[in-house]
Amino acid sequence: MRFEGNCINSRLKNNLMKDYFEGIHFADAKFTPQGTGTNDAWDNKWERTDVTEYPNFQKVEGTFFPPTQIDWYYQGITANTNLYNPDPFNSQLLSPIEQILEHIIV
Hints:
Layout: E1 2-6, E2 16-18, E3 22-30, E4 45-47, E5 58-64, E6 70-75, E7 94-99
Parallel strand pairs: 1-3, 2-4, 3-5, 6-7
C-alpha cells in the first residue's frame, strides 16, 4: 500500500499485507494516529510465507511531510514476530503502542 499527500483522518483498518518488501509506504504523506488508544487497535496484519525472500523488508517505510511520528496502536505483544506489530519499521515514522485486547466469548 502506498500513501502520498494529504491523508489526514485516513484509517487503515483490517488490512493484510502478505509477502511484501514494504508493506505500507508513505511518500511525503500527512497522516494521523492509527487507532484510538482506548483498546482500539485497527488490526492491520503483516504476513510473510518466506522470511528469507526479502531479508531487509520493512513493514512500514517512507516519509511524512512535515517530518513527524504518528501513534500506531496494535494488539498483542511487542515482539516483531507478532503479525500485528508494525516492527520492523522506519523509526522516523511510528510510535508503536501495544494494546492487550481481551476477547470475551459469550
